[in-house]
Q: What sequence folds into this?
């Protein structure tokens, strides 16, 4: 039996996730978004006054699930672009979608990738800039039934501050690399 350990960071312990809570125009469509990388999930964490920041750990039993696995490429970009533009989810029949997070959702890039100011052919090239972090989206009730909550842990404010410093440094590096890439002829 195959399984994957996944993490979700937010402000609550989520023992029973809701696959219909997320936005339909998110990169991989509507579903419950998780990350297979605990370190990245912690760095993605935010703080909110009066709330604890919580990292939940889950185990996804993968047997019998239809899983679409993306790498950075044209199919990945087309799927993201169409979902962001509110098109019908072309992969709604899959139980789980997994693949790279589009870096423009991680770093502050001022919405340039979805603005229409840059041709799609160039956007794919730009989306290949920087590190590739993974996300996994639970899309169906079938997959949700195979996602088992394991534990939750509060991330201390001190750890959050260290994580945010890492993200800000990485964001600065990313934006410099992105600016250099944008200045290249394309």
A:
């Amino acid at each position: 039996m195959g399984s994957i350990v996944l993490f979700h960071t937010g402000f609550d312990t989520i023992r029973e996730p809701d696959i219909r809570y997320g936005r339909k125009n998110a990169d991989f469509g509507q579903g419950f978004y998780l990350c297979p990388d605990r370190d990245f999930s912690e760095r993605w964490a935010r703080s909110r006054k009066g709330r604890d920041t919580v990292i939940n750990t889950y185990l996804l039993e993968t047997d019998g699930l239809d899983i679409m696995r993306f790498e950075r490429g044209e199919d990945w970009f087309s799927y993201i672009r169409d979902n962001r533009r509110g098109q019908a989810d072309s992969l709604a029949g899959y139980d789980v979608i997994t693949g790279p997070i589009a870096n423009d959702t991680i770093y502050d890039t001022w919405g340039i990738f979805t603005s229409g100011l840059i041709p799609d052919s160039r956007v794919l090239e730009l989306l290949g800039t920087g590190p590739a972090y993974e996300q996994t989206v639970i899309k169906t009730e079938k997959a949700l039934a195979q996602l088992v909550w394991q534990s939750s842990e509060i991330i201390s404010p001190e750890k959050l501050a260290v994580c945010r410093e890492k993200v800000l440094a990485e964001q600065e590096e990313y934006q410099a690399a992105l600016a250099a890439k944008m200045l290249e002829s394309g």
